[in-house]
UniProtKB/TrEMBL annotation:
GO terms for cellular component: cytosol. It comes from Muntiacus reevesi. Keywords: Methyltransferase, S-adenosyl-L-methionine, Transferase. This is Methyltransferase domain-containing protein. GO terms for molecular function: nicotinamide N-methyltransferase activity.
C-alpha cells in the first residue's frame, strides 16, 4: 500500500518559488537537482522548462526512494496532493506576480491532467546519481554541463563549515555551462534540524555570507527574495531557522 500524506503545506514556499522561476523563462536542455532527497515535488514545474532532469543525492536511501517512485514500485511515496497543487498554480498563472503573494486558484485539475504531469516528470528524469558537494567533482566520474542547477535546503545540511560552503558553491559552478543558472533556496541561521526524532547540526547562513560566497565562487546574483519565519509553523520543534531565502544566480564567465 502506498504511504499517503499531505505534504503541500510543508513545501509550499519552495514549490511556489520554483513555479514562478520556471514560469519567468528560465529554461534549457538539462537541469541538475543537487541534493534531491527522497522528493520529486521540485520537478513538477521544472519538467515544463527543461527537456532532461538529473536527480542526485548523497545518501543511498534517498536514491532508492527516488528510484522506487520512478519505477512505480510498492511503497513509493504518494505525490498526487502536490501534483494537484502545481496544476492549480499553473491554472492561475499571473506574470510578474511575487511568488509569495500569488493566491491559490479555484482551478481543480482533472485526474488525467495531474496523472500526465507525473508521467512527464518520469520521462524527464534521465538519471539518478550519487552526489557529494564537498568534492571538487560532485558527480564524479560523470561530467554533465547543465543549463541550470537546482538546490534546496541542502547547503546548510551538507556543509560543516563556512569554508566548506564556499567550496561547495565553487564545485557546483563546474556543473554548469557558461552562463548557466543556479536556483538556490535555503534557510537563515539554522543551527539544527530534526529528522525521525534525531537531531542534526546545520550551518547557520545569512545574507551577507551568501552574497560573498556566491561572488567568490563566480556567480552573479540575479534575484534574491527573503521570507521571515511565521510566528507558528509545523517546524517549531524541528528547526530553529529564522527565515527562508530564494535566489537565482548566473555563472559569470
Amino acid at each position: 500500500m502506498k504511504r499517503k500524506h499531505n505534504p503541500v503545506a510543508r513545501i509550499s514556499p519552495i514549490k511556489i518559488f520554483c513555479h514562478q522561476i520556471f514560469l519567468s523563462g528560465l529554461e534549457g536542455k538539462l537541469l541538475i537537482d543537487i541534493g534531491s532527497g527522497p522528493t520529486i515535488y521540485q520537478f513538477f514545474s521544472a519538467c515544463e522548462s527543461f527537456q532532461e532532469i538529473i536527480a542526485t543525492d548523497y545518501t543511498d536511501k534517498n536514491l532508492q526512494e527516488l528510484e522506487k517512485w520512478l519505477k512505480k514500485m510498492p511503497g513509493a511515496f504518494d505525490w498526487p496532493p502536490v501534483v494537484k497543487y502545481v496544476c492549480e498554480l499553473e491554472g492561475n498563472r499571473q506574470e510578474g506576480c511575487c511568488f509569495m503573494t500569488q493566491p491559490a486558484s479555484l482551478f481543480l485539475p482533472s485526474r488525467p491532467e495531474w496523472a500526465e504531469k507525473e508521467e512527464r516528470v518520469r520521462r524527464a528524469i534521465r538519471q539518478v546519481l550519487k552526489c557529494d558537494v564537498l568534492k571538487e567533482r560532485p558527480l564524479e566520474p560523470v561530467v554533465l554541463p547543465a543549463s541550470a542547477g537546482l538546490i534546496s535546503l541542502c547547503l546548510e545540511a551538507a556543509c560543516p563549515t563556512p569554508q566548506a560552503c564556499r567550496d561547495a558553491l565553487r564545485h557546483l559552478r563546474t556543473l554548469l555551462r557558461p552562463g548557466g543558472h543556479l536556483v538556490l533556496s535555503g534557510s537563515f541561521k539554522t543551527t539544527f534540524f530534526m529528522v525521525g526524532g534525531k537531531r542534526f547540526p546545520a550551518l547557520p547562513l545569512n545574507e551577507k555570507f551568501l552574497r560573498e560566497a556566491l561572488q567568490e565562487a563566480g556567480f552573479i546574483i540575479k534575484k534574491l527574495e527573503k521570507v521571515a519565519r511565521a510566528a507558528e509553523t509545523h517546524l517549531d520543534n524541528h528547526s530553529d531557522y529564522t527565515g527562508l531565502f530564494f535566489l537565482v544566480a548566473q555563472r559569470g564567465d
